[in-house]
Amino acid sequence: MAQLLSMLVEGASLGAVYALVALGIVVIYKSSSVVNFAQPSLLMFGTYVTASAYSLHGLSFWVALPLGVAAAAVLAVLVDRVLVARFRRTQAVVAASIMTIGVDVVLLTEVDRRIGSQILTTGDPWGNEVVRFLGIGVAEARIAALVVSALLLVLFQLWLHRSDFGVAMRATAEDPETASLMGIRLGRVSATAWAVAGALAVCAGLFIVAYPSPGLDTSVEAVALRALPAAIIGGLDSTTGAIAGGLLVGLSEVLVRGYGEHLAFLGQGFEEAAPYVLMLVVLLARPAGLFGIREAVRV
Amino acid sequence: MTAPGARLQVSDVTVRFAGVTALSGVTFTAEPGTIHAVIGPNGAGKSSLFNVLSGIYKPAEGSVRVDGSELIGLAPHRVTALGVGRAFQNASMFAGLTVEENLLLGRHRLGRGGVFAAGLRLPYARRSEREARAKVREVAEFLGVDHLLALPAAELPYGEAKRVDIARALATEPRLLLLDEPAAGMHTHEKVEVRDTIRRIAAERQITVLLVEHDMGLVMGISEQVTVLDFGQVVTTGPPGRVTSDEAVIAAYLGRAGAAQKARSESQPPS
């Protein structure tokens, strides 16, 4: 029982981190109908900037963190402005989405080259002490991840539903042409979405490299990629879905790893495939994802 | 209280799609604060004209000036900033937003670092949000849709949606309002309301109204000037009384045979 409870807490914590990355994918999709496959590389890039500012240049974490967040946000806006915007004029969203795979590969290659065989730490303030409650022990970093991610997710939802920009973005998601006739600048909406996505990815990246990984190495990108099934499970056009999807992916990963000995027939390391299997099962039942809106097309 | 209406000068506007000429040398002027109708049979080019005026189509030739400022080549959001508001034929509300949010969109300008100012809730952002909500309420009251503000737009019946759509266009504080078939699909008593609304917009707010409408009774009843389009060309522009008796207009609507018949019946008084 205690084992299950501790796995649930750990799964939720990991899931909340995935949700941050998935939310970036959803925000970009909503504002421009482009699926951003480059999200893992934005995470790697920003986290690398923070980690190298701390480990290699001796800056404090509280200086390195905003540097990394800003670097990823700026790079994301550049990708949008320089590359994706060219496709917007012709509404070639599929081509633009596939192009982001290219961006992902190029960026990851460069970040990997710079990391090499190093393991960079970010100097984050949450330690590896274990906090005990309800008869279970959870690493401090995991609790920090859960609390901070939950806070960011709530802030984001409030922003999307209360702010002027949130209204503009939801309108753009529904009908870009009419939105632009209302005076909304589609380029601004899209650039803001990309900046937010980049910033969220780095916040998530810092938690992924804090624990259980000892620091930033090239294996983190495979972890970051799990945000993609999370976004799709929830429904690409739903921010609530991104959060639900993130939690499901985190829980499935932790539970499959935790009960690994009972699932030995599936082979070792099945927890890495579990999010994708879950995605397939969800899509079979609900092609638009759990919270996605099925577009009703009149024929 | 609002800026007075703009003068709209359309000169020699020509739009071609892959060899088809949708508009050819269209020229007319709508005077400030007047109601100016554009009529014509289906396919005459009325929708193309509206799409040019709101920045969606870029014509091959010609110029469109709003109080002297060139509109052609501007992105749609810049056209809105120039003072051109548009209500749609099918009242395309954003179904996922409330009525109030739909109207707030009309107030939306993401200028002056708005994202961060709004996110941090800086005092000036809060003030501008309060002003926006007050303006939206005022416009909603003007059109009698203030009781609908909290409703999801998806739940509006068609007639209400059309009124909210006009309110949304007015919330952008236009000096020129483009109305695309405001009375389409309406009952007789709703049409009377639409007519009064358009009159009040022009009279009380001094906004120039450019109206596309099929209901001839409505058009002839409220317009100061009427421009008739046929096959993408201007047949004539003039006051309603003169336009209805114009041979070419009758020909456009009834076909050549109809015009000939009318001409015959006029030259040969019934015996």
From TrEMBL, chain A:
Listed InterPro entries: ABC_transp_permease, BCAA_transport_permease
Superkingdom classification of source: Bacteria
Subcellular location, record wording: Cell membrane
Membrane topology term: Multi-pass membrane protein
Ranges annotated as spanning the membrane: 12-29, 61-80, 92-111, 131-160, 191-211
UniProt KW keywords: Amino-acid transport, Cell membrane, Membrane, Transmembrane, Transmembrane helix, Transport
A GO BP entry: amino acid transport
Entry-linked CDD domains: TM_PBP1_LivH_like
Molecular functions (GO terms): transmembrane transporter activity
Pfam family, one: BPD_transp_2
Listed GO CC annotations: plasma membrane
Family: Belongs to the binding-protein-dependent transport system permease family. LivHM subfamily.
Protein name: Branched-chain amino acid ABC transporter permease
Organism in which the protein naturally occurs: Spongiactinospora gelatinilytica
UniProtKB/TrEMBL annotation, chain B:
Classification via SMART domains: AAA
Alphabetical list of PROSITE patterns matching this protein: ABC_TRANSPORTER_2
Any one of the GO CC terms: plasma membrane
Keywords, ordered alphabetically: ATP-binding, Nucleotide-binding, Transport
Alphabetical list of InterPro entries matching this protein: AAA+_ATPase, ABC_AA/LPS_Transport, ABC_transporter-like_ATP-bd, BCA_ABC_TP_C, P-loop_NTPase
GO molecular function annotation: ATP binding; ATP hydrolysis activity
Pfam families hit by this protein: ABC_tran (PF00005), BCA_ABC_TP_C (PF12399)
Domain ABC transporter: 8-256
The name this protein goes by in its record: ABC transporter ATP-binding protein
